[in-house]
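We were asked to recover a plausible sequence for a given structure. The inputs and outputs are reproduced exactly as logged, with field labels preserved.

PROBLEM: sequence recovery
POSITIONS: 442
GIVEN STRUCTURE:
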């Protein structure tokens, strides 16, 4: 098997025979959920690949390749009437530069959207009756021109927005210095709110027929409020719990296949499966399901190493996930946040007597009054550092540390909180090693 670590291109994965966990059977349920959808998952959880799959399924330019791309997938048995019926316009906000002033970020945002519109124009040139006009200083005007041209055809636009909150989150996480810049982006007539207001006004008969948005948290969408209040939040629905991520069965099958290729015994293969479960399993994104999901980036990291060396990695934490440490650092710096991290690390759980917050913005995040236990826990949940653990007999919501990788991040943050100086941390590590390796209590 070829494992597509770091590859989020559905066309490339299918065309080159890479390992792929089919989610096409969920397309009918996605369509039934609405025409404007918001889907949230933690970083590096397969959202971009999901969008790429939808892009190839709905793209009118891929109509002749439907059988080749989807013929071996579940949706081929009963495709929906909408397959290959849309022009695809795709924005990836991780490409927007979050540095500089709000005006600098606005310029980067408009440049990105204009670049995407140029690509759209080149991709569908043979299907469009006239040329789309690009307005260098105003991407919204460019978007209106695109839709004016599209309305003269028999197709409509499916807008895909990947990482809608990426650059805004980068600005927001600066906490103090980023607050003014962030508010300038999302409030009043800020560029992000203005853009989403335009998307809302241009939806339906104006040309944008469907919208699918991915991101990490609902914070930015909450701050946009009336700018874009038509999105259906599908991220807590049980039927979409495994829309991104790998299931236990999928992971086990891959490990056992590679273990057989390596000539490993059943006991050795089972040990590898167990290690993967302890380190990577544990995510649950809906209350009414017991299904646990694996982080796909970590699984592919594990499988590539296992395939090459017939052993699991010595370092089970992929460095690409270490950036989640920043979220714990943010929590540790605010009122009562450090104590919460200590409590979670001690008990692996936190209990709430209410549901998660699904609407909270930057003003709540920067207000000591609003940052209660529920807020802090919800923030950690959306960034994948806590996950659903069911309910207690008393009806309390339990949030758990998902797995050993995330627990390692908590421990590392506690080290840095209690021993902020690197030399002291090194001394502490050496003292601990002397104790557990040599029994040196002193």
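RECOVERED SEQUENCE:
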């Amino acid at each position: 098997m070829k494992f597509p670590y770091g590859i989020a291109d559905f066309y490339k994965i299918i065309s080159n025979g890479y390992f792929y966990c089919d989610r096409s059977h969920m397309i009918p349920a996605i369509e039934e959920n609405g025409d404007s959808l918001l889907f949230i998952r933690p970083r590096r959880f397969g959202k971009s690949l999901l969008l790429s799959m939808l892009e190839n399924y709905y793209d009118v330019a891929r109509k002749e390749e439907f059988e080749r791309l989807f013929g071996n997938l579940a949706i081929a048995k009963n495709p929906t009437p909408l397959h290959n019926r849309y022009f695809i316009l795709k924005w990836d906000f991780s490409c927007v530069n979050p540095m500089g002033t709000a005006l600098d970020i606005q310029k980067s945002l408009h440049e990105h959207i204009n670049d995407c519109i140029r690509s759209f124009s080149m991709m569908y040139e043979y299907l469009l009756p006239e040329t789309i006009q690009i307005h260098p200083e105003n991407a919204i005007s460019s978007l209106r021109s695109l839709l004016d041209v599209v309305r003269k055809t028999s197709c409509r636009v499916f807008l895909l927005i990947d990482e809608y909150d990426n650059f805004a989150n980068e600005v927001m996480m600066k906490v103090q210095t980023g607050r003014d810049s962030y508010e300038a982006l999302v409030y009043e007539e800020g560029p992000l709110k203005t853009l989403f207001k335009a998307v809302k006004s241009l939806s339906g008969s104006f040309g944008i027929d469907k919208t699918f948005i991915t991101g990490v948290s609902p914070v930015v969408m909450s701050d946009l409020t009336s700018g874009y209040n038509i999105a259906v939040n599908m991220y807590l629905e049980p039927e979409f719990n495994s829309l991104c991520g790998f299931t236990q069965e999928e992971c086990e099958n891959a490990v056992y296949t590679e273990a057989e290729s390596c000539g490993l015994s059943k006991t050795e293969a089972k040990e590898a499966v167990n290690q993967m479960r302890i380190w990577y399993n544990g995510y649950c994104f809906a209350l009414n399901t017991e299904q646990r999901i694996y982080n796909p980036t970590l699984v592919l990291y594990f499988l590539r190493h296992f395939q090459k060396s017939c052993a699991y990695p010595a370092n089970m934490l992929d460095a690409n996930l270490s950036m989640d440490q920043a979220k714990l650092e943010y929590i540790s710096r605010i009122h009562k946040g450090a104590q919460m991290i200590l409590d979670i690390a001690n008990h692996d759980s936190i209990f709430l007597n209410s549901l998660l917050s699904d609407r909270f913005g930057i003003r709540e995040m920067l207000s000591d009054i609003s940052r209660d236990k529920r807020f802090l826990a919800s923030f950690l949940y959306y960034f994948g550092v806590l996950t659903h653990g069911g309910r207690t007999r008393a009806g309390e919501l339990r949030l758990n540390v998902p797995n050993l990788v995330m627990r390692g991040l908590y421990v590392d943050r506690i080290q840095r909180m209690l021993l902020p100086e690197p030399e002291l941390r090194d001394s502490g590590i050496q003292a601990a090693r002397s104790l557990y390796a040599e029994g040196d209590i002193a």
